[in-house]
Amino acid sequence: MTRQMVMVGFLQAQNCTNLPSSWRHPESRDDSMSADYYQEIGRILESGKFHMAFFDDRLAMPDRYGNDHAHTVEYGIRCVKMDPVIVLTAMGMATEKLGLASTCSTTYYEPFDVARRFATLDLMTGGRAAWNVVTSINDGEAHNMGKDAHLDHDFRYDRADEFMEVVLGHWDTWEDGSLLIDKNSGRFADPTKVKRLDHKGKFFKSRGPFTVPRSPQGHPVIIQAGASGRGQRFAGRWGEVIFTAARNLAGAKEGYSAVKNEAAKAGRNPDHMFLCNLTTPVCGATRSEAEDRMALIEKLPLEIDALSLLSEGLNYDFASKGIDEPLTTEELQGMQGILGIRDGVLKTSGKTNPSARDFVTFSGRGQTADAIVGGPKEIADKLEEMFTGGGCDGFVIAATCVPGSYADFVRHVVPELQRRGLFRKDYVGKTLRENLGLPRPPAGAWKTRPQIAAE
Fold first, then answer.
1. CA dihedral in degrees (383, 387, 391, 394; nearest 10)?
2. Where does the chain bind FMN (predicted)?
């Protein structure tokens, strides 16, 4: 079968999209705290045959800038953050085949809890769930979850590796065929096929037995988005759908090869993972119509949007210095969180000690500088170039207006991609794994991966 794109809708259970100014768009719905808001998005994505709807998440509103939340609330910078798993459940009731993915942190939850939440979501949606594994990024999240400070970057990933072993271990403890539900004999399940985990490791202890049987797809799909070297190793070991944020084909190809090679080193088949690049399309029936829409969108962001999100993403208070004052090497090295932001600014700006204004200019944070603007042909051309050029296996479609951005993409771009044979015309199965083309994992398969030589 000809290789085709994986398509993911990028969402947040909050008052705006990943673009904090999206709520200011005159065509955006104002009821982002209602079930109908998300159910409409789900129906649109499913009509466009998207593989999944994916919810990003944080455990705190952005309050690192100036160490205060007032600006966040006043300007609506991701200040509302609901539980995405519950929102996904509402979305799942309005869809039948769309995959449903949510972020959940390994730093602030227990493995048994995460395993049970996503295994339950998987059963309730007929095998359509996915878990985005994150280690969280800043002190605000730590403070909300009863900690004084966020854990160091590499330590979080070391801990997350064991977290994955516990979660997958619990998901494996109910074997296929364990359920009997025999009313005549009175036997509900075969106890020889349900085991305790009894995990005792460096970071976690978890006994079991687990309380949720396996779903039609085996267990939820694993999503990851590690950008650092340590993050890429983690993604290569565990991830099945990998989110990337490359700004050009050359950068995308470099990251693509790095993660695929990490998968091979971990004894996995690199073809059993899909790298999907974050993309913000602004589309219309014609290029002229799309340009008019972009002109309006460009008026929405405020400088405070970018400064707030940069402070949140790098766990550094950008209000602590003048906006044009160069940051010291020590300050740059002390940043935590999404280090790809810092490294990207250093590389793109060409400056050893960029200022806060440089971070605003070159990071794209809180802005739409990287948006692809055009009619169906122009958008499809850009996606095809990235896809066929070896930069990704699909795309994570971000919105500037809700639900209009998703509807425009489905109305204008999806038919053009289908015409070119780059995107499917229908779902091939009922579970997320079936629709991604991923094999159903037998219990314990992650422990016995075949060794595959790295390229």
1. 80
2. 57, 103, 153, 157, 228
Q: Is the domain of 70 the same as that of 112?
A: yes
Residue 182 assigned to a binding site: no
Place of tokens 């700006």: 349
Q: What is the pTM of this model?
A: 0.91
Q: Is residue 452 part of a domain?
A: no
User: Of 329, 345, 363, which residue sits at a domain end?
Assistant: 363
Picking from 338, 363, 388, the residue at the C-terminal end of a domain is 363
Is residue 453 one of the residues assigned to a domain? no
Which DSSP letter does residue 259 get? Answer: H
Mean predicted confidence (pLDDT) in 102-130: 96
Whether the predicted pLDDT of 451 surpasses 80: no
Is the bond leading into 450 cis (omega within 30 degrees of zero)?
Answer: no
Directed axis angle between helix 111-124 and helix 153-171, to 10°? 50
Is 329 assigned a ligand-binding role in the annotation?
no
The angle that helices 229-238 and 153-171 make with each other, rounded to 10 degrees, is 10
Give percent of the chain above pLDDT 70. Answer: 98
136 annotated ligand binder: no
Residues 287 and 307 in one domain: no
Instruction: Tell me whether residue 102 is annotated as binding.
Output: no
Q: Which residues lie below 8 Å from residue 108, measured CB to CB, with a gap of 6+?
A: 59, 136, 141, 142, 145, 147
- Establish whether 228 is an annotated binding residue: yes
Pair (265, 307) in one structural domain: no
Residue-range definition of the domain harbouring residue 407: 6-299+369-447
pLDDT digits (tens, 9 = 90+) for 138-157: 778 888 888 877 777 778 88
